[in-house]
Design brief:
Keywords: ATP-binding, Cell membrane, Membrane, Nucleotide-binding, Sugar transport, Transmembrane, Transmembrane helix, Transport. One of its GO terms (cellular component) is plasma membrane. One of its GO terms (molecular function) is ATP hydrolysis activity. By secondary structure, the chain is α/β, with parallel strands linked by helices. The protein folds into 2 domains: about 300 residues, ABC transporter type 1, transmembrane domain (ABC transporter transmembrane region fold), CATH 1.20.1560; about 240 residues, P-loop containing nucleotide triphosphate hydrolases (Rossmann fold), CATH 3.40.50. Helices cover about 65% and strands about 10% of the residues. The strands form 2 sheets. Strands 6-7-8-3-9-10 form a 6-stranded mixed β-sheet, sandwiched between helices. A hairpin with a 2-residue loop joins β9 and β10. α6 runs antiparallel to α7 and α16 crosses α18. The chain binds adenosine-5'-triphosphate (ATP). The site of adenosine-5'-triphosphate has 16 residues, from α13.
């Protein structure tokens, strides 16, 4: 598919975080809540057993200074129990969190994939395949990482902070209130940093997609790159892309790096305030140094978990940036879909009527204007025209890859807008010039024509397509791997595999996009014979490039600039001396 269509709007104004978080909870997290809850219990065990250590050591000191045998008989066991509980709880916590979080990530990947395979072509072609792939990997890793840390850090450090503040409140509520007054001074800048980071993170994710597209294009087109000596041109583009990413990454690191010093300063201000107040009280005889030391200890201990919470806020913002991109795709509306009341199609090899159809790709200039013609039942209709005349666009409208802006497509008297997509597409086979072969066995590739086909049916289809012989030349036969994009086969062989797929599908309507590249004479002959067999008894529309194909067609539709210029048989159109006659003369000169 050419060109680009309106993008899935990943850079639109970001929605607020809370609704996104609630949505994520409802869509993906809620069903794992029991695991997450258990994991939180495990976190509590880890925290409790950790805090037991200082207590045990304290007891050991006391017991040893009193030369009590308890220090030897019981304490080592208690230490072992505490270590055992801590070890098991830590493991349980990791296992439970990861079970839930990796499952959530996989669920999100599955949903994203499902949404994308069912999305309109307009949405799919808005980004390159590599950029889409990156959504499944890098983007969702941010979400996973944020979720993991939320479970691990928020609860552990959050509980510690709450416990420490409770102790402080118990020791001296007034001092605690003084210390707490500075909390907003920490929250405001941390939230600002978070917002900035979210923006940077979104841009980083977009740029990573661009970079992935560039590298994947470079390596998939290695032959062109080398023969056209594109190494310098592409390296320069890649350098720019990597530089841009570096700048964004640096920006994000700098933003993150601001959190620690900020928390440090805020902590310093808290300690200074408390010191000042305590100093004043001690001087005026209202307090003693002893009362104050415990409080200060707790305040200093609280600094570390507070810092961890500050850092967590930044990581969560990165997760939100990725989550926003995820939901932007999920929410993209699908327009080509079953209309209300759609019925299963019942047409066979009937007449395909294109009735006053106009169409434009997104906001581009119209590709078809008021196109009308009929492809008669069981006959072959050739569509010819210059490059960009709209031939492929007509093809796109028949299986409803796109819907016309106006007019309709009717097959066997049924408006295709009124039938279910599945039943419509079941009845249409497309053999296009860019043959799509998946990295699977050759047998599996043919079987895509009709999932569930038996080995005999696959073989029969391959024989009809003239593919059986070359498939059997490989000792593995139908189990031979086709290679990445069918790289183990020649151009002519790939076309025959595609034809075998169409034979197996056995659809009554056939859309053929004739290959422009010439095959060797023998392959050409085999493909031609196979095509003749395939079109028999079907309504065939063919985008024709070769004179032989056009001559063989019962009707020729000439498109020009998105309009129908001429319709007729070969002889009639040559006699009319119009556009087709001109093509014909040029073709004869070329042959
Ligand atoms: N996905 C797309 N987005 C935007 N414009 C498109 C898209 N696909 C095709 N077009 C435009 O629509 C017009 C018709 O294109 P179409 O592919 O139907 O021509 P064609 O006759 O099949 O050409 P060719 O023989 O070169 O394949 C062209 O102007 C083309 O640039």
């Amino acid at each position: 598919m050419k060109g680009t269509a309106p993008a899935v709007s990943a850079s639109a104004v970001p929605p607020r975080n809370w609704p996104l978080a609630v949505r994520l909870w409802n869509d993906h997290i809620r069903e794992h809540r029991s695991k997450i809850l258990l994991s939180l219990v495990a976190v509590a065990f880890v925290a409790a057993s950790t805090s037991l250590y200082p207590v045990l050591i304290n007891w050991a000191f006391q017991a040893l200074s009193e030369r009590s045998s308890w220090a030897i008989s019981t304490l080592p066991w208690l230490v072992l129990v505490a270590a055992g509980v801590r070890g098991m709880a830590t493991y349980a916590q990791v296992a439970l969190t990861q079970q839930a979080v990796t499952q959530i990530e996989a669920d999100m990947q599955k949903r994203l994939y499902r949404t994308l395979v069912e999305a309109d072509l307009t949405s799919i072609t808005a980004h390159t395949p590599a950029a889409w792939t990156q959504r499944f990997t890098t983007d969702l890793v941010f979400v996973r990482s944020a979720l993991t840390r939320l479970v691990n850090i928020l609860v552990r450090e959050g509980l510690t902070v709450v416990a420490l503040f409770a102790t402080m409140f118990y020791l001296d509520w007034m001092l605690t209130l003084i210390a707490v007054t500075i909390v907003p001074f920490a929250l405001i800048p941390v939230s600002r940093i978070g917002k900035r980071l979210r923006r940077v993170s979104r841009r980083t994710q977009e740029r990573t997609g661009d970079m992935a597209s560039l590298t994947s294009e470079t390596f998939s087109a290695a032959r062109v790159v080398k023969t056209y000596r594109l190494e310098d041109y592409l390296s320069e583009q890649a350098d720019n892309s990597f530089e841009m990413l570096k700048r964004l990454r640096y920006k994000s690191m700098i933003q993150k790096g601001r959190v620690d010093p900020l928390m440090e300063c805020v902590g310093g201000v808290a300690v200074a305030l408390v010191l000042g107040f305590v100093g004043w009280r001690i001087m005026s005889g209202q307090s003693t140094v002893g009362e104050f030391s415990g409080f200060l200890g707790a305040l200093l201990i609280a600094a570390q978990p507070m810092r961890a919470l500050g850092n967590l806020a930044t990581i969560v913002q990165e997760g939100f940036a990725a989550l926003h991109r995820y939901y932007a795709v999920i929410d993209e509306p699908v327009t080509v879909t079953d209309h209300p009341g759609a019925k299963p199609a019942s047409f066979g090899a009937d007449t395909v009527s294109i009735e006053s159809v106009s169409f434009s790709y997104g906001d581009s200039a119209p590709a078809l204007f008021d196109v009308s013609f009929e492809a008669q039942a069981g006959e072959t209709t050739a569509i010819v025209g210059r490059s960009g005349a709209g031939k492929s666009t007509v093809f796109n409208l028949i299986p409803r890859l796109y819907d016309p802006s106006s007019g309709r497509v009717v097959i066997g008297g049924e408006d295709i807008a009124g039938v279910t997509l599945a039943s419509l597409r079941e009845r249409i086979a497309i053999v296009s010039q860019d043959v799509v072969i998946f990295n699977d066995t050759v047998g599996a590739n043919i079987a895509l024509g009709r999932p569930g086909a038996t080995a005999t049916e696959i073989e029969d289809a391959a024989r009809l397509a003239g593919a059986h012989d070359f498939i059997m030349r490989d000792p593995l036969g139908y189990d031979a791997p086709a290679g990445d994009r069918g790289s183990n086969y020649s151009g002519g062989e790939r076309q025959r595999i595609a034809l075998a797929r169409a034979f197996l599908k056995d659809a009554p309507i056939l859309l053929l996009d004739e290959a422009t590249s010439a095959l060797d004479a023998e392959s050409e002959q085999i493909v031609r014979e196979a095509l003749a067999r395939l079109t028999r008894g079907r309504t065939t529309l063919v985008i024709a490039h070769r004179l032989a194909t056009v001559r063989a067609a019962e009707k020729i539709v000439v498109l020009d600039g998105g309009r129908v210029a001429e319709i007729g048989t070969h002889d009639a159109l040559v006699a009319a001396g119009g556009l087709y006659a001109r093509f014909h003369r040029l073709q004869l000169q070329a042959d």
